[in-house]
Amino acid sequence: MQSLIPKLNKNSRFYAYVLFFSVVFFLTGLLFGQLAGNVRLVMGAFIFMFLTGLAFFDMKKVLWTILFFLPVVVGLNNYQINIGTLFQNIVNIGDLYVNPFSLTCLFLIFLAIIEILRVGKKMAKIPLFFILLISAALSITVLLPSKYLAIGLIFEVYLLAGFSAYFLGYLFLSSKENFLKTILVIIFSAVIPALTGIFQLLTGNYFFENDSSLGRIAATFPHPNTFGSFLFIVLTLFLVTFFAVSLENRRTNLSKLGIYFFAFILGLLFILTYSRTAWSGLLISALAIFIMKPHVRTLMVYCGLLLSSIVLLFDKTRERILGIFEHHMYDSMYGRYEIWDMALFKAWKKPFIGYGIGSFSEIIKDTQGKETGNVYPHNDLVRFFLEGGVLGVLLYLIYLIGALYYASKSFLRYPKFNEKLHFWGKDFNVELKTLGVVPLVLFGSMIIISMVESPSMDFTYQIISWLLLGSWLGASQEYWRKKT
What we know:
The protein is mainly alpha-helical.
């Protein structure tokens, strides 16, 4: 037992208390509640206690574990868990259903609250602390008076989970080694979705929209668009890492082949999501590399033209791309204009505080007078204006512009040179400035994509982006602290 003591981090005592009370609460629910009859709830409790126990030793491993399985839990909507039984002896709240992804988000918020309490006043020194605090306060302000409070609480949890991921990334992954490790974990988190996507491709188990005959790959995600945006992130990280990181120990030809094959599979699945906004995002990433790396511009132009030619050879991809420029009654933009008109019409009736976070789809359904049809915002400004009025737009602009400001400032200030990092038994030569473009690209893409989509509602995208931003800002600030 003595050998474990040096490994304990400063916040171990907090998690020891939390784990103790969790075990007591679990045993009480097991003996006197209905917990024993709910297998999913028991599994959820065990996972919660396992991660809390892991946090007792190393919070970094907790965050990397969550990151790795995030693309899997996001699609487990069918595995609803009724947590209302946990509280039936305390307060009568009836049934309260959550799924594994919402529980993961709640756990991130839970961890962030503990860390904020532990760090105390020092949290004020973290970049974006007051910006995110104000944004969170504004979101709660427009949520509480809403008649859509139940569904709004879910969207509030998803919003705060992204902010929580940022703080946790800054506090625990704020070193050059941990920033690179986090990138690698996200890349390898695509393994399970890739295997699922290949299985869907081989079995013909495609995702079909109600108004389309186009078969698309969704893998472990609830929709091909969210799978596409996830692959956009992974391929961006792969592309940036390819140009920024090299191993001092030479890779074998077999390992190189495995890496290239993995990238090929991800690229194939990325195309088969038929997500045009995700394709556009990857184009932005390639443009960023093009600007930063003059010596590879010729190669990138050649590869880009070759890939574009291959993509345009196929009818489905060609129709999908050319469909952007078509304008008729049944094109995707026509549906968006219709939704935006309805949303703005309703928003002007409550221009100050809106209808509450998460209320967009319910408002559009009421306006349309039917339960089916297109109710997705496809524009973040329209979404926040309807849901929060002027306050909603303010909270959206504050956190997004704040994130983009710090991402660009830290990237531009960081010097360009190679650094040697050693972990996992290997020596890496890393140009950290190139890696630092990732948060800037992800949040910059959000602004561009938000004109025709709603990246604020792509919660996997949000959590990964915020966590990477926190890790990068911590790592870059660590460099400047050492210099001064």
